[in-house]
Amino acid sequence: MLCILILQPSGRTMTLDEQTGIDILGNILESTIISPNRGYYGDLHNMGHIFISYAHDPDYRHLEQFGVMGDLATTMRDPVFYRWHSYIDDLFQLHKSRLPVYGTDKLDFPGVTVSSVAVEGQAGANTFGTHWEQSTLDLERGLDFAPRGPVLARFTHLQQDPFTYVIECNNATNNNVMGTVRIFMAPRNDEKGQAMPFKDQRLLMIELDKFTQNLRPGSNTIRRNSADSSVTVPYERTFQNQANRPGDAGSTEAAEFDFCGCGWPQHMLVPKGTAQGYPVVLFVMISNWMDDRVEQDTVGTCNDAASYCGLRDRKYPDRRSMGYPFDRVPRSGVSSLSEFLTPNMRVQNCTIRFTDTTTQRTAR
Fold this sequence. Notes:
Elements (H helix, E strand, L loop, with lengths): L4 E3 L5 E3 L5 H10 L7 H4 L2 H10 L26 H18 L6 H4 L4 E10 L5 E12 L13 E9 L2 E9 L5 E11 L10 H4 L4 E10 L2 E8 L6 E2 L1 H4 L13 H8 L4 E2 L12 E11 H4 L13 H4 L27 H4 L4 E16 L4
Parallel strand pairs: 4-13, 10-11
Antiparallel strand pairs: 1-2, 3-6, 4-5, 6-9, 7-8, 7-12, 12-13
Helix pairs in contact: 1-4
């Protein structure tokens, strides 16, 4: 399988390999000062935003300001944002397609079997319930005028009902073992209502949670609350009170405060769904923690969204690639999710049911 070659300033080439290739490619596309050849590859992702934002006045003859794609606070409002990011994603997927596939030896956890997966919640068995929620924010710190008290803004956003994963598994070894529980969700069907091929479905998998779990010999029941997701942060940290920001700008204290706001919003963990119930598949895998662990001190604050943000000033706390086990093309003969499964994996068909009602946010 051909690997991607990167041109260096010296004229020599370097290979994007299995271990460090994704980091090098990220440094090129983002780009950073450690890009191997910034003069040649430029700053594709960021400059793409800028060029698109000036598409209405590319040579500045009308003295127009840049469009919403040029501002981090507004860029996701432009539909082209998603087309541009899909293009960037495709470049990473091109690299991933050149890497060796995961054989069953890279996926299985000998002795550990997942027998069932279920979701419990207010919406019913294996059903995720979503609705609208109305919240109030104090915007005083974001406005430039003399202090005159709170400036409150009320907005409506998506919210899901709390739910719990229930995972039944068996440890056939005679010893306690540590596993990494990985939970993903993907659509079941394509836009025509047909079962989605695995080659497309794997690219639409979203990570809902990842955590370590001790498994006793014999049967184990794992219960995990949705609010404990390793991807999300609670509402209070998504919209932190900037009046509480310590230290001066650029200080260690301020940087730590800012990092605590990193994470996908908890109220957006589950997609909206439909009134009829949008069909999704829930995927659970337990991998061998001995193969996943990263030897480092993880003491610190705001580590609860580590899957999304990593750990501040430390290595990413998972030796596996981001998106594992769906980050590479499947092994030969796998055309559906069911064919991809090994004994340490399990899937459950679920639905996301949206109710068009609005509740008022209360302190949680």
